[in-house]
Design a protein that fits this description.
The complex is a heterodimer.
Chain A (H helix, E strand, L loop, with lengths): L1 H11 L2 H24 L16 H4 L7 H27 L2 H8 L3 H35 L12 H32 L2 H22 L8 H10 L7 H25 L5
Chain B lengths: L3 E12 L2 E12 L3 E5 L6 H8 L7 E6 L2 E2 L10 E4 L11 H12 L4 H9 L15 H13 L5 E5 L7 H16 L3 E6 L2 H7 L2 E6 L2 E7 H6 L4 E6 L5 H10 L4 E4 L2 E5 L4 H11 L4 E7 L3 H9 L4
Parallel strand pairs in B: 3-8, 3-9, 6-7, 7-8
Antiparallel strand pairs in B: 1-2, 1-4, 4-5, 9-10, 11-13, 11-14, 12-13
Helix pairs in contact in B: 2-3, 3-4
The chains are: A mainly alpha, B alpha/beta.
Keywords (chain A): Membrane, Transmembrane, Transmembrane helix
Pfam families (chain A): ABC2_membrane_4
InterPro entries (chain B): AAA+_ATPase (IPR003593), ABC_transporter-like_ATP-bd (IPR003439), ABC_transporter-like_CS (IPR017871), P-loop_NTPase (IPR027417)
Chain lengths: 263, 302
């Protein structure tokens, strides 16, 4: 499996993909984290869906990663798009047949792909953590936010917890992406269906009937990144999100191992 | 150890109501070049995919290097394959594409440079695959197939897109590999191509094997032919009638009558045609080539 891991990284490390993905992630990261501090006094709010995050909240022990937690869902969506494209392209390019000739144990191949994805997600998580916390420190003074509690033991604990939550969320999103890629075998279909569902349909249904957001997969994964929300508890999001991901994992593994490779 | 590199018995693949391969049975001896021929859609690629574990047969069995095709992990490390044209990542260079496969199979990446040179891509290995011409892509596909130093090389239409020089290079390469003990199973719809390089042949038509064996045996068993052209193409039917009346089998295609018969009968035909006022513009006694034989055996007389 380690060979597949390194083989996958030969594909993931190509500059267009790696720089493009990280540039997009860091751009949104910088934008959202900066907004939290720069718009701190705005009556329209400074966070997700018009919420206001005040100085007293940002001054708490978990204040350094408030921006990072907010960006978690978006990082997950970026990972979903990258890995949906990566898995579906194996079918559209016809490269899957080459891979399966060199590694006929399909589950091992899939496991290798997942392990490469997890390491990619880890890198994405840590780079964005550093940038988000860095921007937070840089802007805290200007926004008159106290950082006294940020690097206490409680602060470090909050950083660790948020990092783990964002990482889990990114991995879950990426698993959904890989599964959609395998299921649909078309990058455009996999990405567009995922984005339309997560960004439009879930929000539309949620706007009409807010209680449904408690059951929507995209909302669960974003909530995991945030460590829970006022509407959905962390444990609920984790249990339900894991269930969705396990189903996706099972279905995609079954399809990947049993389906004929005829293209 | 079996003398057969590939053995297939009653291999069948059905898709809903379509039969892609129907009860195919054949063997490929070790160390030979075996041509796998048939028109487009005959089931060649489907058969190859079943041999490589990419497609599950509906029924039947097979072995590759003595291992069942239901356990491809036991033999694929010794198999190189180019299936239905070269498929690589467009944004990666040719070398990097090969390194992906080499890394996955635990093959030293130094072999990649060696193969890039072997297939005539020296100096272009660092270029992105999407910038390659069709011939270069095909060469890279052959290089990928050669990565594991295979005991069996399975190539699906390897000369597609190659210029005459490239085709000759591939022929020479396959002959060299076979002389070193590699079994080459090469599919093509170009029968003349296969006739030049193969020792054995498996002929497939509409999913069914119509012949499997030595190419010499196949051609020796075929009857000699006389190829006839007439000054007026409309007279071909009359020539066919003369030949049929004398007990010879005739097929007309591409403006020629192909008459089964010994070369001694050619002057007799010439005289009979002259007597009824037909002028022959060509009268060529010949032994059938693979293409003739294929059409004769499959009954395709278009």
């Amino acid at each position: 499996m380690i060979r597949i891991f390194f083989a996958e990284w030969r594909k993931l490390r190509r500059p267009t993909l790696l720089i493009g993905t990280f540039a997009a992630a860091l751009f949104f990261n910088a934008l959202i984290t900066s907004f939290i501090y720069l718009m701190i006094d705005s009556p329209q709010g400074n966070s997700d869906r018009g919420r206001s995050v005040g100085r007293e909240v940002l001054g708490l022990a978990n204040g350094s990663v408030t921006g990072f937690a907010s960006i978690g869902g978006l990082l997950g969506i970026i990972a979903l798009c990258v890995f949906a494209a990566q898995s579906a392209q194996e079918y559209t390019y016809g490269t899957l047949r080459n891979l399966l000739v060199r590694q006929p144990r399909r589950l091992v191949l899939l496991a290798g792909k997942y392990s490469a994805m997890k390491s990619f997600a880890l890198l994405l998580t840590f780079v964005n953590l550093l940038v988000s916390v860095g921007i937070s420190i840089y802007l805290s003074d200007r926004a008159k936010v106290s950082t006294d509690l940020w690097f206490t033991s409680a602060g470090w604990s909050a950083i660790a917890h948020t990092t783990i939550n964002v990482y889990i969320s990114i991995v879950f999103y990426a698993i959904i992406g890989i599964s959609l890629g395998i299921l649909l075998r078309s990058p455009i279909s996999a990405i567009s269906i995922a984005l339309v569902w997560i960004l439009i349909i879930e929000n539309l249904i949620g706007a009409v009937k807010p209680v449904t957001l408690k059951w929507m997969p995209g909302n669960q994964l974003a909530t995991i990144a945030q460590g829970g929300s006022p509407e959905i508890s962390y444990s609920h999001a984790m249990i339900l999100g894991s269930s969705y991901v396990l189903v996706a994992l099972f279905v995609s593994s079954l399809l990947f191992t049993k389906r004929d490779v005829a293209n | 150890m079996s003398n057969q590199a590939i053995e297939v018995q009653g291999l069948t693949k059905k898709y809903d109501n379509t039969v892609a391969v129907q009860s195919a049975s054949f063997t490929v001896p070790r160390g030979t070049i075996c041509g796998f021929v048939g028109p487009n859609g005959a089931g060649k690629t489907t058969t190859i995919r079943m041999l490589l574990g990419l497609i599950t047969p509906t029924s039947g069995s097979g072995t590759v290097l003595g291992h069942s095709i239901t356990e491809p992990e036991k033999y694929l490390a010794s198999v190189g394959a180019l299936i239905e044209g070269p498929a690589f990542y467009p944004a990666l260079s040719g070398s990097e594409n090969l390194k992906v496969l080499a890394t996955m199979a635990g093959i030293p990446t130094e072999r990649v440079d060696e193969l890039i040179n072997l297939v005539g891509l020296t100096g272009r290995g660092g270029d992105k695959f999407k910038t390659y011409s069709l011939g270069m892509k095909q060469r890279l596909g052959i290089a990928a197939a050669l990565l594991p130093s295979p005991e069996i090389l399975i190539l699906d239409e390897p000369t597609n897109g190659l210029d005459p020089e490239g085709i000759q290079e591939v022929r020479d390469l396959l002959k060299k590999l076979a002389s070193e003990g590699t079994t080459v199973f090469v599919s093509s719809h170009l029968l003349s191509e296969i006739e030049i390089i193969s020792h054995h042949i498996v002929m497939l038509r509409k999913g069914e094997v119509v012949f499997a064996g030595s190419i010499n045996d196949l051609l020796l068993n075929q009857k000699p032919m006389i190829i006839v052209r007439t000054e007026n193409e409309g007279d071909l039917e009359k020539v066919a009638a003369i030949a049929t009346a004398d007990g010879h089998h005739v097929s007309i295609r591409h403006g020629e009558a192909h008459i089964e018969g010994p070369h001694e009968w050619a002057p007799i035909l010439n005289k009979k045609a002259f007597d009824v006022g037909i002028t022959l513009s060509q009268l060529t006694p010949t032994l059938p080539n693979l293409e003739e034989t294929f059409f004769e055996m499959t009954g395709d007389r278009s």
